[in-house]
Amino acid sequence: MSKLTLTLSLVKFSHSVFALPFALMGAWLAAGGPPANRVLGLIVVAAVAARTAAMAFNRVVDRDIDALNPRTAGREIPSGRLGLGYAKALTAGSIALFVGAAFALNPLAGWLSFPVLGVLLGYSFVKRFSAAVHFVLGLALGLAPLGAWIAVRGNFEGDLVPILTLFLTVWTWVAGFDLIYACQDADFDRGRGLHSVPAKIGIANSLRLSRLLHLVTVATLVFLGVRTDLGWVWWCAAGAAAALLAWEQSLVRADDLSRVNVAFFTVNGWVGIALFAGLAVDMAVFSSGQVA
User: Fold this and answer.
1) What is the rounded CA–CA span in Å between residue 19 and residue 145?
2) Contacts with 286 (C-beta within 8 Å, 6 or more apart), sequence order
3) How many CA atoms lie within 13 A of 282 on its CB side?
4) Whole-angstrom Cα distance, residue 34 to residue 99?
5) For 71-76, which contacts have Cβ atoms below 8 Å and span 24 or more sequence positions?
6) Measured between alpha carbons, how far is 198 from 202 in angstroms, rounded to an integer?
7) Digit-coded pLDDT (tens) for 28-51
8) Longest CA–CA separation in the chain, Å
9) Whether CATH 1.10.3720.10 fits 3-286
10) Average pLDDT of the residues in 168-197
11) How far apart are CA 240 and CA 225, in angstroms?
């Protein structure tokens, strides 16, 4: 494998579809449609750079834990396919790119990039002391639409209810699917003294909590559509997302986690894409969803 291929694998670059569509949704809501090309380009750069920094940093911090876990021992750093120094340099470069893009957008976005980095990088340490790790991950990805709003507007003025609703959508959606993914490591985490909800309350109860969180996700999609007067295209997209979440939940059971990867990677990738496409097309067709 080439170093580029290994790097993309290290940071799971394809998983950018988890956060990027919601950053774009935040930008569309803030601008009342497509933002200016320069702003849009910088938002994409900032979102990808932030996620790359967070993932590379996580792999650096967790390298010893990954080496002990049979599920993760083959990752790039524990297996020796990428060096630790390279991963640290990638992290530093991505941080610099994120901060630079944020300041290029506007001063408020630039200064807020530092506390955002605190959340993104701090997530990697949470499982060492708190089972709230899944909710911190939800917070980290939920900052994407909020950041895009600031990138477009440069202030906190106007009606913030829609963008805060979208933040809640992402937060509950991510925490819900991360609970499913973490069920794979419940025994390992418990044995190593690491904290997670599955290690604390068991797999069955964690799956129930995940379903509850995804019900809240669907409720926020309904509220967002009503609050911003979106049309039938949005409702079709929201319905598709709800169906995908229901399918995701049906793929896993407490006694059968064999399809976790399908639930986590395939289904969740389509959720964000469907919602962004629905919002963008709906706003283009109906000129609705504009936020004062």
Assistant:
1) 8
2) 230, 231, 233
3) 24
4) 23
5) 71/184, 71/185, 71/188, 75/10, 76/6, 76/9, 76/10
6) 5
7) 999 999 999 999 999 999 999 999
8) 54
9) no
10) 96
11) 14
pLDDT of residue 2: 87
Neighbours of 259 (CB within 10 A): 15
The pLDDT assigned to 1 comes to 60
Report helix, strand or coil for 136.
Answer: helix
pLDDT tens digits, residue range 74-109? 999 999 999 999 999 999 999 999 999 999 999 999
CA distance 47 to 101: 9
Which structure tokens are listed for 199?
Answer: 């290690």
List the structure tokens of 5.
Answer: 């291929």
Instruction: Locate the domains of the chain by residue range.
Output: 3-286
Kindly write down the DSSP assignment for every residue of 75-123, as one continuous string.
Answer: STTTTTSS-HHHHHHHHHHHHHHHHHHHHHH-HHHHHHHHHHHHHHHHH
- Show Cβ contacts of residue 186 under 8 Å, excluding neighbours closer than 6 positions: 196, 198, 199, 202, 203, 206
The conformational region for residue 138 under phi > 0 = left, psi -120 to 50 = alpha, else beta, is alpha
Per-residue tokens: 93: 């470069």
Q: Give residue 112's region: left, alpha or beta (phi > 0; psi -120 to 50).
A: alpha
Give 153-168 pLDDT, tens digit per residue.
999 888 999 999 999 9
